Amino acid sequence: MGYIEFLSKHGYSHEIVNIAKGLVEVPKHSIHAPADPIYGFPPVLIPLWSDPDWPGYIGIAKDWFGGRRDTFVQFFVEDFFFVEIARSLEQLKAWMVFDFLCNVPAPDEVGRFSESIGFCAADDVENIFSDCEVVSDLAKLNIFKKDLPPVIGKGEEFGAPEWLMETSGVAEIRGLISASQYERAWNQLNSTVISKPEVADILDTLSLHVTEKDAFKDLIACWSASNL
Q: Which residue among 1, 95, 136, 137 sits deepest, i.e. has the most Cβ atoms within 10 Å of its Cβ?
């Protein structure tokens, strides 16, 4: 199973599935979809786009044990670090358009992206972001008035998701599972650089304790196929 099939099977919107399929027109020489799994990523991430320049991904961070809703993140492979950029699809659209507006020297391509992802008409982009010079200025937009993602509320250097933990090892993760602290174990697993066989083994153990067993097994299949 691949992530596009996972998203389609488990109730994600057509908009998100279309993003993952690469049906949204992005600026040239930027991000790619379907995401290239070659860089590797922890199982919390459902990748939507990949970027060879970081390298890394933009995608969905899904919690399986604590009831936390999905958020949207950047994952930087070399630093093994997450930045939470949006807490809804509409916030993601705004953040992406602004990011391209700041970094892509082709306004027409940014406008086409904005229309393709369903944010606004190409001619409205610069007007919407007229008062936004840095990422924190996005807080001025109505869409960010509530439930502000960390990258906007705290600044890019403090944009890590609230669930990201200080790193530890496999023994600590297994200890959390033994203590029935499955959410903490899941968060720790996705905050730590450990070997792929050990990740796979921990995922198998966690699969015994998750509510959405079939969906979690599909996640394991997706992650295993992408992280060879």
A: 95
